[in-house]
Amino acid sequence: MSPECVCKVLAQNTPQIFLYSMLKLSLFEGGQKPTVFVSVPLNANELLLRTEGRKISKLLDNYVHSNRSQTKMERLKKKYQHVDNISECSVANPSVWDTQKVYKHHEQQNVAQTRAKYREGRRQRAVKVYTINLESRFLLVQGVPAIGVMAELVQLFALYGVVEEYRALDEYPAEQFTEVYLFQFQKLTSARIAKRRTDEKSFFGGQLHVCYAPEYETVEETRQKLQDRRRYVNRASQNTAKQYYQQPEVSTESSSTDTRASAAPEIQKDFASARRENVKSDYLGFPEQPLAPTEDVSYRLPNFTQPFQLQWSTKTTLPTEDKMGSLHNSIPPVPETSKQSASSSSSSVKERDLSKRQENLSRPVRFMPRITHLESRKRKLEETVFFLNETETLIGPKLPELPKVDMEDHSLNVTANLIRQTMTKVTSVPEVKPVQVKTTTPKPRRRI
Amino acid sequence: MARKNQFSVSDRFEFLQGLVTEFQDTDSDESKEQVLANLANFAYDASNVESLRMLQVTDLFLDMLTEENDNFVEFGIGGLCNLSMERESRDQILQNGGVPLVISCLSSNRDETVLSAITTLMNLTTAASRAETTDSAVVQCMLRFSLTQNPRLRNLASVFLQDYCTREQVDRAREGIQGQSQSVVGIPLPKD
């Protein structure tokens, strides 16, 4: 490369290449000390550097020191000791250097010793931030003892996911008697798990140091990685946002119904507070008596969060109310203060309620551990959220709905939901087709 | 990350709040760095994004971009890179004037900072902000990055140019660079 070409290259590249090129230039001149006036467009800012041959080594010094750890430098110095002109740099054999750079993110940093107790994890860790740029399907594994254990190493990594490719990196600067391998996983998640599980673990007497190697990705792979990540984050955050807003805002939702409801606000509040208590104690399986009259009123109010509240209250073994909110079918006698004539509820619905209620009460009370209870609650919330999203624009009083009874069993619930959905589909048919009366014309018979 | 699901949303919120409080109250730079890195790593997990947004951590990260301490900048932009993947956080960053601050990170001498800045810019590019994030100076910068030897930088810059810039923008930027290099390089190049 002629000096002119080198200078052209300088105009386009980052400091690393600039310094390397400068060095080549000085070598090229064979001892002469060219004064080079070079401008290196460093990112958005132009950087002007004036150097002389002598000063090149100083620049390299600073560069090398800031980017390499001491031990690696010693190693590299020893490797390229035969090169005299260069004082301390490791850029002697350009072709080797170009293909095998030891990046900063490959290095193992020291763990932080001074963390506050409350934020200390189980393992000591270094202070490092992981972004999607750093993570990759490619893992670099260093510190593998050079005793012919490649097959076992591959088996170890294959535990965490499909390994598309693996190879030994002979050119990579490695500690004596160790080997360095590169693994390419099919999925980023597998690579992540593999790294977490194998980093710092002992393997046939040596300690593995595993890190990501995103520099082996192609442009397309990088693009795909970013897109996948974005899609995943948006999907995951939507799910968690729903959960987050459903849990603490259950009470606020009930209070927000005040604006829509025409009933006295305090009834709503009573309902909300009673419901909260209800939720806490309903696993005992006893119906909440004070709850009944207030629920009675609220259910008649045009309110699209109604189904949600209904779901919330009819948790496990409560006697269920029909749409009109009256509990007159329930077995424990409840003072029916404002019982409405159940004009809309058909007899079949009542019967169903009755049978379900009897079923609920006759079933032995199951003691559910709290965590299971919370999980089942979460599951139901997800179901109702789905429902809520669909009925957002509903205005006006809703048609009497089938009461949503919790069957206390997931498969039964699924079946019940399916039946309910079918029922809504059937009832949503706009007009009732006139029953076709079969007018049979008398078939002409032959009189024998 | 799987272990975190044991904590309820409110517990997590309280813990993150504790971190933010420590960051604001402590004088030790070392503690600040540790907490900042913690927050940035928590921002990687999608289930924390909501809490972090409520705690105004996006502003905290943005403030870090103008600090002198290079670690603060690196962790701050890393946190923004993680947060900006999510739609609402992205909007919050845009509303708080994040684009110029992120662009200024492109000229850092730390690889990770620059890489995070490029990814953050990609995430922040919406129909409304496109003019700002694909400004001619930015496109020129990306063009230079796409020619370097550093493969990560080269890949990211290429994705940016291919997916977020129009052909005209790239061509214009290329012309701009050529014009600049001829005027600034002091060595008289031979005409052949």
Automatic annotation (TrEMBL), chain B:
Record organism: Phoxinus phoxinus (Eurasian minnow)
Family annotation (InterPro entries): ARM-like, ARM-type_fold, ARMC7
Superkingdom assignment: Eukaryota
Descriptive protein name: Armadillo repeat-containing protein 7
